[in-house]
Amino acid sequence: MKKIAVFTSGGDSPGMNACLRAVVRTAVHHNIEVYGIRFGYEGMIDGDLVRMNAKSVANIIHRGGTILKTARSKRFLTLEGRTLAKATLEKNGIEGVVAIGGDGTFRGAVEFSKICAVPFVGCPGTIDNDLLGTDITIGYDTALNTVVEAVDKIRDTAESHSRVFVVEVMGRDSGLLALYGGIGVGAEGILIPESSQDLGNLVERLRQSRSDKHSKIILVAEGDETGGAMNVGQLIGEHFPDLDVRISVLGHIQRGGAPSCMERVNASRMGHAAVEALMQGRKQEMIGIKNNQVSFTPFEKAVKEHIVPDAGLLRMMEVLAH
Length: 322
Ligand code: ATP
Hints:
The chain is an alpha/beta fold. The chain is 41% helix and 18% strand. It has a seven-stranded mixed beta sheet with strand order 3-2-1-4-5-10-11, with helices on both faces. It has a four-stranded parallel beta sheet with strand order 7-8-6-9, with helices on both faces. The mean pLDDT is 96. It binds adenosine-5'-triphosphate. The site of adenosine-5'-triphosphate has 18 residues, from helix 4.
């Protein structure tokens, strides 16, 4: 293998830069030419390639976001777009590609493989931690720490004013950020899309909660079937007119910030393994870390199902929140 390309795609996540750095430096180490494709699949369609070397990834291991930029590409969803992307790879003599992104990015790679034989491997870059085949995705640990830091601050003011705060965190289909973040902040309630009968249960538990509790924090995943923090706050207000209920939507701060140390280490391991996987002839696989070992999962399997959170964790939270 003499020439590879790397790109970041879908929602950005802290640690993508650390992964990119590992891909580029590993390629350089093995005398492989490496190109960065800017703006994800959009750049692949437009031929937006930049030659990278060890210097181009200097001083980025600690930076959030992605220096290669990212995008969601409508054009890549069409055969016409994918045909243009194929022409870009062929024209530039690219023999292997590392895709850093989430489930959509890997679905795109599966679709692309039907018309293009260039091997792809993937590194899971998403704050959602929703891919099968890895214990942790790049961005999840940092996003969790951002949630905890923000909600700890909300707890201070909630406690001072004896308020209930309903805090919405990211997670369209996955409640893992809300679940782990909620346990981490000692939340009184957690609402996630994977658990359907939780709102009545929450109201009942609020009714029975200790009378000497001054603040209450409810974490809601944005994809929960209740429709988000506004709806939940309104409903709690209707059931408990005496409570002072406030809403906070954390939003995009969860995507940014310097990656945690674990993130940097995991991202480096995955990026390094991705290049070696291409050199070994692997393709259409996602690199992951399972039980602290590098693992390989076919894209089709990695995106097929979401990780289902352990229901026991919700029960534990209820016990500990009393
Ligand atoms: P995140 O989990 O952070 O949202 P993601 O990789 O899932 O990241 P998406 O926007 O879902 O983000 O996917 C990235 C891109 O992959 C899409 O914008 C689209 O161009 C491409 N893609 C997704 N699904 C398909 C598909 N079925 N066929 C072709 N391309 C696809």
